[in-house]
């Protein structure tokens, strides 16, 4: 297994019913994710509702989560921001408190403020000067096109840019091109999107995946079997989780992990901050119906 490989799910941010951050619940989320057998975790990502969290809460969550993890697993801290100086400050804060890596999208703000390729390169280079490995998140949410030549340039010319989370449409094709053109400079090609394209991405050369925290313990065997050369076993393992992943990706989004964690007693509430609506009860019940037969850690951890 390479240094940058395996399953690194995104930790949800638990809120109390009044919308305040449940910091004790965050500790329980961390403990549950350790017990899931993950290879690392990511905090403050889009699936952590990072766009609904204040700067003060972000700092507190970073410090508390890293302190509670206490080195049990490596932690990636998401630091995306349109302002380069703020992204740098977030990277320094994460490093000070023990983060193993940082992840960031290219600079963007809304539909019209988008970094050019050169601005994107410069922002990642300046964040790289902080001294932590950087994962480039190539996600549709930013609306910024990250071409393969730009990503390869970043991998070759920015020492700390080592990982790439590719979750754009036709991710496998982009991963395959990135790996072919970037060679050894691409140390950690990952996919995302709740692993909905995992099999194709692994075939394309992905070494890791960043899923939600819902059923990573049941997705991990797909990676293990594929890495061992057991493609039939990987396909069979993926078939067991595919319906749940599809429902999560297409119907629930980041609300899925919270629903599962509340059901399993990990957190007290699956509240999401306004304007995010709660899951429809029938959508929630189908989600739980799909994951119960898998017997994932999350459904029994707090019971």
Fold and architecture overview:
The protein has helices spanning 23-35, 55-69, 84-96, 117-128, 148-157, 171-182, 198-204, 216-227, 231-252, 255-263, 281-291, and strands at residues 6-7, 41-43, 75-78, 101-104, 108-109, 113-114, 134-138, 161-166, 188-191, 208-209. The model has no long low-confidence stretch (mean pLDDT 97). The two termini are 33 Å apart. With 303 residues, the chain is of the alpha/beta class. 45% of the residues lie in helices and 11% in strands. Helix 1 crosses helix 2 (55-69) and helix 9 packs antiparallel against helix 11. It has an 8-stranded parallel β-sheet. The chain contains 11 helices and 10 strands.
The count of strands amounts to: 10
* Assembly context of the chains: single chain
> Major sheet: order of its strands?
1-10-9-8-7-4-3-2
Report the total helices: 11
Instruction: Classify the beta-strand content into a percent band.
Output: 5-15%
Q: How much helix, percentage-wise, in residues?
A: 40-55%
Structural class: alpha/beta
End-to-end span in angstroms?
33 Å
**Which outline best applies?**
globular
- Rounded radius of gyration (Å): 18 Å
Summarize the main sheet.
8 strands, parallel
Residue windows where pLDDT falls under 50 for at least 5 positions: none
Mean pLDDT: 97
N-to-C series of helices and strands: EHEHEHEEEHEHEHEHEHHHH
Summarize the structure.
With 303 residues, the chain is an alpha/beta fold. It is built from eleven helices and ten strands. The strands form two sheets. Strands 1-10-9-8-7-4-3-2 form an eight-stranded parallel beta sheet.
